[in-house]
């Protein structure tokens, strides 16, 4: 082979090697950038994992709250039924109380009538007793005169 050709090829290969060296440096810079990006992605993945854990915890809390609300709804449903039952009982009691009020009113009217009759009876008895006393007084006076007249006889 010719020395000139070898020198020419060496020059050309040296130029190509330098270009490859430059390209290798560029690739190494790109690799470093990708490593930095990978680190950032890893950091973001860790953050997302932490956020997932937080969301899981929040989901558990929501589930617990849902269960509590269901229990409250069941309890309030039971209370609502109990209130309806008590409301019915109160209505029945009100009806009975009204009936008792009417009965008490009738008893009060009856007592008032008895009082009037008793007052009327008292006045009649009083009049009769006064008349009877008056008769007795007259009879006692007559009797007293007779007894006195009999005693006065020898």
Provide tags for this entry.
single chain, 154 residues, mainly alpha
Explain this structure.
The chain has 154 residues and is mainly alpha-helical. Helices cover 97% and strands 0% of the residues. It has 1 helix and no strands. The chain is rod-shaped, with a radius of gyration of 63 Å. The model has no long low-confidence stretch (mean pLDDT 91).
Secondary structure: elements and pairs:
Layout: H1 3-152
Tally the helices: what do you get?
1
The helix fraction, in percent, is: over 70%
Rounded mean pLDDT score: 91
| Uncertain residue ranges | none
Q: Which strand-content bin applies to the residues?
A: under 5%
Q: Give the biggest sheet.
A: none
Q: Which descriptor suits the 3D outline? A: rod-shaped
Cα end-to-end separation: 214 Å
The Rg value, from CA coordinates, equals: 63 Å
Order of helices and strands: H
- Let me know the number of strands: 0
Structural class: mainly alpha
Give the gist of this structure.
By secondary structure, this protein is mostly helical.
């Amino acid at each position: 082979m010719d020395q000139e050709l070898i020198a020419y090829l060496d020059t050309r290969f040296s130029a190509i090697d330098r270009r490859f060296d430059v390209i290798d440096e560029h690739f190494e810079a790109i690799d470093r950038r990708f490593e930095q990006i990978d680190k950032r992605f890893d950091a973001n993945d860790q953050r997302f994992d932490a956020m997932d854990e937080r969301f899981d915890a929040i989901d558990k809390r929501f589930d617990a709250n849902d269960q509590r609300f269901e229990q409250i709804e069941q309890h309030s449903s039971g209370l609502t039924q109990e209130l309806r039952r008590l409301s019915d009982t109160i209505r029945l009691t009100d009806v009975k109380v009204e009936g008792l009020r009417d009965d008490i009113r009738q008893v009060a009217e009856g007592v008032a009538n008895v009082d009037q009759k008793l007052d009327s009876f008292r006045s009649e008895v009083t009049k009769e007793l006064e008349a009877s006393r008056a008769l007795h007084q007259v009879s006692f006076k007559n009797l007293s005169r007779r007894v006195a007249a009999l005693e006065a006889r020898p």
